[in-house]
Amino acid sequence: MGRGRQKAKHTKVARQLKYNVPATDYEALERELRSSAHHDESAEEDWNAYHYPAEDDREDDER
């Protein structure tokens, strides 16, 4: 494909993205955000357990 045809195709796609507003499924978005929020909490707990070990574990490391 020549450069002119390629540029025209890119321009067409860019216009479609700019001016066509897709319908938003807010219920699906809410479900996705709720599931990621639950995932983030468990990730934070894992991080805290790794970086802040229990008192018993720290005493073993100091010996």
Structural overview:
The protein is built from 3 helices and no strands. The protein is mostly helical. It has one domain (3-62). The protein is elongated. The N and C termini lie far apart (71 Å). InterPro entries: DUF3073 (IPR021426). It comes from Pseudoclavibacter caeni. This is DUF3073 domain-containing protein. Residues 33-63 are annotated as: Disordered.
Tally of helical runs? 3
Kindly give the count of domains.
1
| DSSP strand content | under 5%
Q: Which residue ranges are poorly predicted, with pLDDT under 50 across at least 5 consecutive positions?
A: none
**Structure classification:** mainly alpha
Major beta-sheet overview = none
Shape verdict: elongated
Q: Measure the end-to-end span.
A: 71 Å
Q: What sequence of helices (H) and strands (E) makes up the elements?
A: HHH
Radius of gyration: 25 Å
Average of per-residue pLDDT values: 79
How many beta-strand segments? 0
Helix content: over 70%
Pfam families: DUF3073
Organism: Pseudoclavibacter caeni
Protein name: DUF3073 domain-containing protein
Provide a compact summary of the structure.
By secondary structure, the protein is mainly alpha-helical.
Name some characteristics of this structure.
about 60 residues; elongated; about 80% helix; mainly alpha; single chain
What is the fold's blueprint, element by element?
Blueprint: H1 3-19, H2 26-51, H3 55-62
Region (Disordered): 33-63
Protein name: DUF3073 domain-containing protein
InterPro entries: DUF3073
